[in-house]
Write a structure and sequence with these properties.
The protein folds into two domains: 3-174, Peroxisomal Thiolase, Chain A, domain 1; 178-329, 3-Layer(aba) Sandwich (Peroxisomal Thiolase, Chain A, domain 1). The strands form four sheets. The chain has a five-stranded mixed beta sheet, sandwiched between helices. It has a four-stranded mixed beta sheet with strand order 8-13-12-11, sandwiched between helices. Strands 2-3 form a two-stranded antiparallel ribbon. Helix 3 (52-66) packs across helix 4 and helix 8 packs parallel to helix 9 (261-271). By secondary structure, the chain is α/β, with parallel strands linked by helices. It is 32% helix and 23% strand. Bound molecules: coenzyme A. The site of coenzyme A has 21 residues, from helix 2, helix 6, helix 8 and helix 9. Coenzyme A is lined by residues 29, 33-34, 37-38, 113, 154-155, 158-159, 220, 222-223, 225-226, 259-260, 262-263, 287, 318.
């Protein structure tokens, strides 16, 4: 079977910067609390009317160019997001239309913070199996329209930001590129980090009462997320290394989902890798859910932090709970 590799990366960040100081004008919080607990200094919010597909398309155009391709070379779209433009259809079809592509397939992935890695695994499998030669994988989120910006929602809202990232996956020699991907879930914790409405188990799916009770805004058991994340991140990174007969000393760089700086620091310590081998940009963008890994990957490539032959590990944990890793020989 042939291999699958990342041919190009791209990102899209809204121009509007929202600092911690700005958040203190909306809710009872402080710059010190946010920086100390999360490492976040600022995040980006979209202007009204911008959907996840708009950020996705922008990131996709950059990734297509980086890969030396044109949009018409793309044969399949995978779009990972928890904040699709509409409840349905998914955002992938909007990307198909906005990129002016022929009637290619477009699949939306709904695994939140791990969505990009789950999506990458789909592209990897299709390319390795010879179904497609150029698959576009996007992770993009508009979180800002779903955050409770009052003091009641401050534990969640200070964490999240908007953004998009994309990669193009194409064929390579066996044993190169994406070596393996590892996907997990544990649905008994589904309610630890969720948005309850609109929901098909409700009739109507959304009502004034539900909005008044703020059930359309995300809720999180932060302590539970922290405990599970700091266990699952190192576990799934080690799983990827073991699968490929490697140890942590073989890693050139780890690119974790940017959940929270304290989680990243705990994972770095648990793995026993030097801090400079674990990428972080959360201070600039906050947690952008499915977009955080491809945005970080694109920044690493741009900064020359990934070179040919490097062993790169992508890893994520989040709502579901779901967790995942992908080991890549660049
Ligand atoms: N500003 C100021 N105070 C805040 C606040 C904010 N934005 N959010 C919560 N607080 C308050 C709480 O109300 C609480 O007050 P109390 O002691 O009077 O009840 C106090 O700060 C401490 O809250 P606590 O929950 O104990 O803080 P913590 O040290 O556990 O940190 C998180 C909270 C959310 C930062 C932490 O649990 C965490 O990192 N969890 C993982 C979250 C995450 O990464 N989610 C994304 C997953 S993909």
């Amino acid at each position: 079977m042939r291999g699958a590799r990342i041919l190009g990366t791209g990102r899209a960040l809204p121009s509007r910067v929202v600092t911690n100081a700005e958040l203190t004008t909306m809710m009872d919080t402080s710059e010190e609390w946010i920086v100390q607990r999360t490492g976040i200094r600022e995040r980006r919010f979209v202007d009204p009317g911008t959907g996840a597909s708009d950020l996705g398309v922008q990131a996709a155009r950059a990734a297509i160019e980086r890969a030396g391709l044109v949009p018409q070379d793309i044969q399949f779209i995978v779009f990972a997001t928890l904040s699709p433009d509409l409840f349905f259809p998914g955002s992938g079809v909007f990307v198909q239309e906005k990129l002016g592509l022929d009637t290619i397939g477009a699949l939306d992935v709904r695994t939140q913070c791990t969505g990009f890695i789950y999506g990458l695994s789909v592209a990897e499998a299709y390319v390795k199996a010879g179904f497609y030669d150029h698959v576009l994988v996007i992770g993009a989120e508009v979180q800002s329209t779903g955050l409770d910006m009052s003091t009641a929602g401050r534990d969640v809202s200070v964490l999240f930001g908007d953004g998009g990232g994309a990669v193009i996956v194409g064929p390579t020699e066996p044993g190169k590129g994406i070596l393996s991907t590892h996907l997990h879930s544990e649905g008994k914790y589904a309610r630890e980090l969720m948005v309850e409405a609109p929901a098909s188990i409700e009739n109507p799916r959304i009502s004034k009462e539900m909005i008044d009770a703020r059930r359309h805004l995300g809720t999180m058991n932060g302590r539970s997320v922290f405990i599970h994340a700091t266990r699952r991140f190192p576990e799934v990174i080690r799983e990827a290394l073991a699968e490929n007969g490697m140890t942590v000393s073989d890693l050139s760089i780890v690119i974790p989902h940017q959940a929270n700086l304290r989680i990243t620091q705990a994972v770095t310590k648990a793995l026993g890798v030097p801090a400079e081998k674990v990428f972080s940009n959360i201070e600039k963008y906050g947690n952008t859910t499915a977009a955080s890994v491809p945005i970080a990957l694109d920044e690493c490539v741009e900064q020359g932090r990934i070179r040919e032959g490097d062993v790169v590990c992508l890893a994520a944990f989040g709502s579901g709970f779901t967790w995942a890793s992908s080991l890549i020989r660049w």
